[in-house]
Amino acid sequence: MASLAVLPLFGWVRRQFDDQVAFAACLLYALQPKLVAFSPLIIRDPTFWFLFNLTLYLTWRAAIEIRWRLFVAAGAALTLTVHTRSEGWILLVPVVLWAAFRLPAVAGSRVRLVMGTVACVAMIPISVTLVNLTWLRDSPRWEMIRSSHVDYARRWSHSFHEPDPDQAAVAGRAPQIDPPRASTRGTLAGFTLTRKLAVRFVKAYTYVYGLLALLGLWRWWRVYLRRDHQTLLLMSVLLMGAIWIQYSQTEIDIRYFLPIVLVSFPWMALGLLWVPDRIVRLTQRNLTWSPKRRFVLVTGWLVLVAVVGSFSMKLSAGPLMHRRAELGNWIRQRLGPKQRIAGSLKALGLVGYYAQGHLVGDPLLPVIRRWKPQVIVLRNNRRNRNSWAAYSEILEQEPGLRYRRIPQDQLPPWGEEILVLVRSEKRF
């Protein structure tokens, strides 16, 4: 899927610029260190890149050519994109604005353009309805669009008045441990939060590719002022705002920034092409640039970019993902499959997958009393270590639950980062 994404990327960049820029953008896409690092994660990320670029390609063609089949195809691609990763919702910005900017130039086709755009957006609720009526017809409830990000925004709006989520999971659902305090992350100073986001943003671009993008923007800034490119800028700004809100509530990694990187490849390509062209212009009085020499110059410049960028070609989340897989395997091997698991770890689904178990939710006392999960996994970082340690003692003493904390030296090599309690008669 990561390789196939180059096709729609070439398509929409070629139509907005030219073949040369599109070819250079695809080369940079193939070499971009963070995309290479995340490309093996087939379940969502590379599939999202393909669908993201495909939606841009079909939306641009639909707005320019005003064909019904293109609007329907763009709507289908948009539907798949938003159900692959939630960042896909920002594609509604080009879907609407590209069509709106075309209205003055298509006097005889305005109705068809508006109706086509409506049909494109309507594909999302139509598809959700069809899925619920067919594949999920036996489900006890309708599966709708994820609302977790709406919850993030709601909690963010009240974050200056509510207790910390981890503290709230302890205080109020168990005997008082520590006085509730304002959320450290929710009330994090704007400067500190912005700095952390900026660090992740730069890591997503990497230094060399970020410099290429800035160089392309600086050299062709007048082109960037076109409304079609400003639409993608607005889309990126809205995504940054959404990331800011979500990061104020929970940890995130650099994958959330990758859509901004994807729409920056044309400007990276322009920066890449400008450097050898500038070298030729500055030296042409003293040096004859034959096609062979030009080829050697361009190839050497591309190799230099690739080599420098390769130092960032590392999956930063790789060790954490391996540890979660090890914990899941440990649960399956010690307790067997099909265990009920509760936990405060983000992305506990990876643990549940390797444990071949069933996730029952956060480790709140009402959830534990109702589901009686066989395994509870608690975060044990410095910010909530004392609270969760005390909470684990409460669970061990809770009548009828029989939880026992597993010694750290018997757990997979996580150090002191997690607490694991089991509800089992087995001895460890």
Notes on the protein architecture:
- The longest helix is centred in the N-terminal third of the chain and has 24 residues, at 110-133.
- Helix 1 packs antiparallel against helix 2 and helix 6 runs antiparallel to helix 7.
- It contains 20 helices and 5 strands.
- Helices cover 61% and strands 5% of the residues.
- The protein has 3 domains: 41-137, no CATH class; 162-314, no CATH class; 318-422.
- It has a 5-stranded mixed sheet with strand order 2-1-3-5-4, with helices on both faces.
- It starts with 5 loop residues before the first helix and ends in a 6-residue tail after the last strand.
- It is globular, with a radius of gyration of 26 Å.
- The model is unreliable at 162-188 (pLDDT under 50).
- The chain has helices spanning 6-16, 19-31, 33-38, 45-65, 68-82, 92-102, 110-133, 148-157, 165-170, 190-205, 207-219, 221-224, 227-247, 258-262, 265-283, 291-310, 318-335, 348-355, 365-371, 385-397; strands spanning 340-343, 358-361, 375-379, 404-405, 418-422.
- It is mainly alpha-helical and 428 residues long.
Q: Strands across the major sheet, in which order? A: 2-1-3-5-4
Sequence stretches where pLDDT stays below 50 over 5 or more residues: 162-188
Oligomer: single chain
Outline, from the CA principal axes?
globular
Q: Work out the radius of gyration.
A: 26 Å
Mean pLDDT: 83
Number of folding domains? 3
- Alpha-carbon distance between the two ends: 43 Å
Helix segment tally = 20
Major pleated sheet: 5 strands, mixed
What is the N-to-C succession of helices and strands? HHHHHHHHHHHHHHHHHEHEHEHEE
Strand content: under 5%
The computed structural class is mainly alpha
Residues in helix, %: 55-70%
Count of beta strands:
5
